[in-house]
Design brief:
Layout: H1 2-13, H2 18-61, H3 69-80, E1 89-100, E2 103-114, E3 124-127, E4 138-147, H4 156-159, E5 162-170, E6 175-177, E7 180-182
Antiparallel strand pairs: 1-2, 1-4, 2-3, 4-5, 6-7
Helix pairs in contact: 2-3
């Protein structure tokens, strides 16, 4: 019994492995902080570029009738570079403001999409956006769903993260239909008379 007590005392007084134990406790925390310092700014930048790409697409289609949406998608890809938009769901919509009772609502007139279904003509988008709240106003909208690919799969919250961006824009110039300038996307028709 005295041999065990003496060995236990020597073990408790030994300091040779203290730095190894300290490293084992601190290293995982430092490693997580290192990975977060890379992953979080990258996620923020991806979200920012997705927002900028949606704004760019809305701005481009608000100027005139779009005959080739591939050019609009290419502009979005240029804005988000080096991030790839091949898996992004993009929906471009041209709409108008109509009265639903006394409330102005935005409705779809024409829509095109890539990797997502287009919006149905005549469906309601929602309340009329600010700046286009008068019946007969025309608008365009660009929506993007961009799946985020994490560099480190350690953070479960980033594993299935998708950035969803929606930008609404008033029509700047377009062809005049029934006295109103509006944008008609490929395969679509002008907005119905309200």
């Amino acid at each position: 019994m005295t041999v065990c007590r003496g060995g236990l005392r020597r073990f408790l007084r030994a300091r040779g492995g203290v730095s190894g134990v300290e490293f084992a406790l601190v290293a995982p925390i430092l490693l997580l902080m290192f990975m977060a310092s890379i992953e979080l700014p990258r996620a923020f930048t991806t979200a920012r570029r997705a927002s900028l790409a949606a704004t760019t697409m809305a701005d481009l289609i608000s100027r005139d009738d779009v005959t080739d949406v591939a050019e609009v998608y290419a502009a979005a890809q240029a804005v988000t570079s080096p991030y790839d938009l091949a898996r992004a769901g993009i929906v471009l919509t041209a709409g108008g403001v109509y009265l639903d009772g006394l409330t102005p609502v935005a409705k779809v007139c024409s829509s095109v999409a890539r990797n997502d279904p287009p919006r149905s003509a005549g469906s309601t988008i929602g309340p009329a956006p600010p700046g286009t709240a008068s019946p007969g106003d025309r608008l365009v909208m660009a929506e993007m769903r961009l799946p985020y690919t994490a560099v480190f799969s350690v953070f479960p919250v980033l594993k299935n993260w998708t950035f969803v961006v929606r930008k609404t824009w008033p029509v700047r110039t377009g062809k005049a239909y029934l006295g109103r300038e509006e944008v008609v996307l490929p395969g679509g028709k002008p907005c119905a008379v309200f």
